[in-house]
């Protein structure tokens, strides 16, 4: 029989995705630049379902039922373009090309447009969940046309993770919307990971706890509000003991965090859109600092505070850190969703935030119990200006804010860096401040550059003659 779906690029993510399709009953065409990977997949996992292997791209395309659906699972950037170029020559109008990698959404917009001119549907599709997710059910964020989703959607929904019987896959919006939302997902992932790392650092250096004890704390947190994949695996990583040295795993790993760029894109895009994603930005910078070998070599030259932290009540401190983590995490999501709203306005996408939260409940790296609450918040009020204004989250933060402040203040006093805890708190305080000092900045701008300002008490645009008699004029030249 002709294949229902094809996967090209059979590295771990690609082969696991192909196995997922096959095991769900889809006849799955598989292809890879070097054929040995294709045969290896069939040799090892041919029993998962019905595979149709092809050595050449032409045979691969010919093995698919029309309209053909092909998922590209190769490196983002040049390699993706190369595969698109090769396949486009072989496809027919109506066929659907899906890019399942972490592509930059602007590339996806460009590729969709080029494909559309040839009558081919191009679906930029965010896929989250790592290797295991790809195999057992990821969270899937497809963009592209509604028309493409109509025939592709049911297949993707079937192989996605399911929560309460609902698939973790929905049509996000046209062209680059899916990759945009996946990008923001990764930004939130960075913030969440950095927050957990800061919490660990506080428990270890602030409260003097050992990794194994901290693992217990995280395992405990995972049974409550913070129940999430990242908290769960954190407990596992902290429990791990290095076989060679007998030391905790976290003590033998070089403390320089890697990154492949999606967090950076989230922040770059947010800056362009003018959206403060401070927690996400600090988490990207924190990875940057960790890898700044030259600067960090001078660590010993920089004095710290005179007083080390003396945590008196360990249990109370652990609870403070938990609440600070929860509140900061809500801020990271609030900021991420703000970026999604701004992106949707800029690129003309209709993105349903509640649906995004819903498909992030399972399969993906940031899956967490509290995404149910986010889904509910947007269901109650689809126009919510900030997630922090949803009654449930306002309540969580208000109950946690004293803890949050104690943690950030204590960390500052004792010299433990908590960039995401601290910046998230500053953002929260910025948001609840009736009058920000921005009026003074407007004055400064008007002083040195005649940049003008608005007044609180009347309409219009004004400028003060700072180097003249300091009287005020209205921008159109009339003195008010
Ligand atoms: C996922 C992950 C996945 C990957 C990212 C982040 O959703 O499954 O986000 O896409 O882990 O590429 O990787 P870096 O930490 O290397 O940037």
Structural class: alpha/beta
Bound molecules: 6-phosphogluconic acid
Instruction: Determine the number of helices (DSSP H or I, runs of at least 4 residues).
Output: 20
**How are the strands ordered across the major sheet?**
3-2-1-4-5-6-7
Number of separate strands: 11
State mean pLDDT (0 to 100 scale).
97
Proportion of residues in β-strands: 5-15%
- Stretches with pLDDT under 50, minimum 5 residues: none
- Major sheet details: 7 strands, mixed
Helix content: 40-55%
Q: What distance separates the N and C termini? A: 80 Å
Q: Based on CA inertia axes, which overall geometry fits? A: globular
Spatial extent as radius of gyration: 26 Å
Task: Outline the structure in words.
This protein is α/β, with parallel strands linked by helices. Helix content is 55%, strand content 9%. The protein is built from 20 helices and eleven strands. It has helices at 12-23, 35-45, 57-62, 78-90, 105-117, 130-136, 146-159, 177-206, 211-221, 229-239, 249-252, 262-273, 278-290, 293-296, 314-347, 353-359, 371-380, 391-414, 419-432, 438-449; strands at residues 5-8, 28-31, 51-53, 69-72, 96-99, 121-128, 139-142, 162-163, 166-167, 462-464, 472-474. The protein has a seven-stranded mixed sheet with strand order 3-2-1-4-5-6-7, with helices on both faces. It has a two-stranded antiparallel sheet with strand order 8-9. Helix 2 (35-45) links the parallel strand 2 and strand 3. Helix 13 (278-290) packs antiparallel against helix 19. The mean pLDDT is 97. It binds 6-phosphogluconic acid (6PG). 6-phosphogluconic acid (6PG) binds at residues 102, 128-130, 186, 189, 258-260, 262-263, 364-365.
């Amino acid at each position: 029989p002709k294949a229902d779906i094809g996967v090209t690029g059979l590295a771990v993510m690609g082969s696991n995705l192909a196995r997922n399709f096959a095991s769900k009953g889809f006849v799955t065409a598989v292809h890879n630049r070097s054929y040995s990977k294709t045969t290896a997949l069939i040799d090892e996992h041919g029993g998962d379902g019905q595979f149709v292997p092809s050595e050449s791209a032409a045979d691969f395309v010919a093995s698919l039922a029309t309209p053909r659906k092909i998922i590209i699972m190769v490196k983002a950037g040049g390699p993706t373009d190369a595969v698109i170029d090769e396949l486009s020559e072989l496809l027919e109008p109506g066929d659907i090309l899906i890019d399942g990698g972490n592509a930059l959404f602007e590339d996806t917009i460009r590729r969709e447009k080029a494909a559309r001119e040839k009558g081919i549907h191009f679906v930029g599709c965010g896929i989250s969940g790592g290797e295991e997710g790809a195999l057992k059910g990821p969270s899937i964020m497809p963009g592209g046309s509604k028309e493409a989703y109509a025939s592709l959607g049911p297949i993707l929904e079937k192989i996605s993770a399911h929560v309460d019987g609902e698939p973790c896959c929905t049509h996000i919006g046209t062209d680059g919307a899916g990759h945009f939302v996946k990008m923001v997902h990764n930004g939130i992932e960075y913030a969440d990971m950095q927050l957990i790392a800061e919490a660990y650092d506080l428990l270890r250096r602030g409260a003097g706890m050992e990794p194994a004890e901290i693992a217990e704390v995280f395992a405990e947190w995972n049974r409550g509000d913070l129940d999430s994949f990242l908290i769960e695996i954190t407990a596992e990583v902290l429990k791990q003991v290095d076989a060679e040295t007998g030391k905790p795993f976290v003590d033998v790993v070089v403390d320089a965090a890697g990154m492949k760029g999606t967090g950076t894109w989230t922040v770059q895009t947010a800056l362009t859109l003018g959206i403060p994603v401070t927690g996400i930005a600090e988490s990207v910078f924190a990875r940057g600092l960790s890898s700044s070998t030259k600067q960090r070599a001078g660590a010993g030259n920089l004095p710290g505070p005179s007083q080390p932290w003396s945590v008196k009540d360990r249990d109370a401190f652990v609870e403070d850190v938990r609440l600070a983590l929860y509140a900061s995490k809500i801020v990271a999501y609030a900021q991420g969703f703000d970026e999604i709203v701004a992106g949707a306005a800029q690129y003309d996408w209709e993105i349903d935030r509640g649906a995004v939260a819903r498909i992030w409940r399972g399969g993906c790296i940031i899956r967490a119990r509290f995404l149910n609450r986010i889904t509910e918040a947007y269901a109650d009020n689809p126009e919510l200006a900030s997630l922090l204004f949803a009654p449930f989250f306002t309540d969580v933060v208000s109950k946690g804010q004293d803890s949050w402040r104690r943690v950030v203040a204590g960390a500052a006093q004792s010299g433990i860096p908590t960039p995401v805890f601290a910046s998230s708190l500053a953002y929260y305080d910025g948001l609840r401040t009736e009058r920000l000092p921005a009026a003074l900045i407007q004055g400064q701008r008007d002083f040195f550059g005649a940049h003008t300002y608005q007044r609180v008490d009347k309409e219009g645009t004004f400028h003060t003659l700072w180097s003249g008699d300091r009287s005020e004029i209205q921008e159109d030249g009339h003195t008010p």
